[in-house]
């Protein structure tokens, strides 16, 4: 019985740490705040335009993925700065690659948003 309790307690602790990390990202990182704000706006737009279930799934996954990627990028930058606080070309490359991954997905997110919302906006006219 002790192993199951230990496993359960460890899962609860993991969730608590994850929640703490998400809270820290949302309250301290400007890029996450921007992404969260955009996420709120497109969620409001989704209710206004009564987007389909499929569009909701896509929109939710895109919002979550961009915010998760921003979090990973922030973690990579923090590790890089911790390991090598002074400027170093390799650290700069690592940070640029991580930021590039976020950028690629952000472009895809904008395209997905345009595919969902442009027809709805055009229908208003």
Automatic annotation (TrEMBL):
<feature type="binding site">
    <location>
        <begin position="95"/>
        <end position="96"/>
    </location>
    <ligand>
        <name>ATP</name>
    </ligand>
</feature>
<feature type="transmembrane region" description="Helical">
    <location>
        <begin position="56"/>
        <end position="76"/>
    </location>
</feature>
<keyword id="KW-0808">Transferase</keyword>
<feature type="binding site">
    <location>
        <begin position="86"/>
        <end position="88"/>
    </location>
    <ligand>
        <name>ATP</name>
    </ligand>
</feature>
<dbReference type="GO" id="GO:0046872">
    <property type="term" value="F:metal ion binding"/>
</dbReference>
<keyword id="KW-1003">Cell membrane</keyword>
<feature type="transmembrane region" description="Helical">
    <location>
        <begin position="21"/>
        <end position="50"/>
    </location>
</feature>
<feature type="binding site">
    <location>
        <position position="77"/>
    </location>
    <ligand>
        <name>a divalent metal cation</name>
    </ligand>
</feature>
<protein>
    <submittedName>
        <fullName>Diacylglycerol kinase family protein</fullName>
    </submittedName>
</protein>
<keyword id="KW-0460">Magnesium</keyword>
<keyword id="KW-0594">Phospholipid biosynthesis</keyword>
<comment type="similarity">
    <text>Belongs to the bacterial diacylglycerol kinase family.</text>
</comment>
<dbReference type="GO" id="GO:0005886">
    <property type="term" value="C:plasma membrane"/>
</dbReference>
<dbReference type="InterPro" id="IPR000829">
    <property type="entry name" value="DAGK"/>
</dbReference>
<keyword id="KW-0444">Lipid biosynthesis</keyword>
<keyword id="KW-1208">Phospholipid metabolism</keyword>
<feature type="binding site">
    <location>
        <position position="70"/>
    </location>
    <ligand>
        <name>substrate</name>
    </ligand>
</feature>
<keyword id="KW-0472">Membrane</keyword>
<dbReference type="GO" id="GO:0016301">
    <property type="term" value="F:kinase activity"/>
</dbReference>
<feature type="binding site">
    <location>
        <position position="29"/>
    </location>
    <ligand>
        <name>a divalent metal cation</name>
    </ligand>
</feature>
<keyword id="KW-0418">Kinase</keyword>
<feature type="binding site">
    <location>
        <position position="77"/>
    </location>
    <ligand>
        <name>ATP</name>
    </ligand>
</feature>
<dbReference type="InterPro" id="IPR033717">
    <property type="entry name" value="UDPK"/>
</dbReference>
<keyword id="KW-0812">Transmembrane</keyword>
<dbReference type="GO" id="GO:0008654">
    <property type="term" value="P:phospholipid biosynthetic process"/>
</dbReference>
<keyword id="KW-0067">ATP-binding</keyword>
<feature type="transmembrane region" description="Helical">
    <location>
        <begin position="97"/>
        <end position="118"/>
    </location>
</feature>
<keyword id="KW-0547">Nucleotide-binding</keyword>
<keyword id="KW-1133">Transmembrane helix</keyword>
<dbReference type="Pfam" id="PF01219">
    <property type="entry name" value="DAGK_prokar"/>
</dbReference>
<feature type="active site" description="Proton acceptor">
    <location>
        <position position="70"/>
    </location>
</feature>
<keyword id="KW-0443">Lipid metabolism</keyword>
<dbReference type="GO" id="GO:0005524">
    <property type="term" value="F:ATP binding"/>
</dbReference>
<dbReference type="InterPro" id="IPR036945">
    <property type="entry name" value="DAGK_sf"/>
</dbReference>
<keyword id="KW-0479">Metal-binding</keyword>
<feature type="binding site">
    <location>
        <position position="29"/>
    </location>
    <ligand>
        <name>ATP</name>
    </ligand>
</feature>
């Amino acid at each position: 019985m002790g192993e199951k309790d230990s496993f359960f307690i460890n899962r609860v602790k993991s969730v608590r740490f994850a929640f703490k990390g998400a809270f820290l990202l949302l309250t301290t990182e400007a890029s996450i705040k921007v992404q969260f704000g955009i996420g709120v706006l497109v969620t409001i737009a989704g209710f206004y335009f009564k987007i389909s279930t499929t569009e909701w799934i896509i929109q939710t996954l895109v919002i979550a993925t961009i915010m998760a990627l921003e979090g990973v990028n922030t973690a990579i930058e923090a590790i890089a700065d911790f390991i090598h606080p002074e400027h170093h070309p390799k650290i700069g490359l690592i940070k640029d690659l991580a930021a590039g991954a976020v950028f690629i997905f952000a472009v895809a997110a904008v395209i997905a948003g345009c595919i969902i919302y442009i027809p709805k906006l055009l229908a208003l006219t």
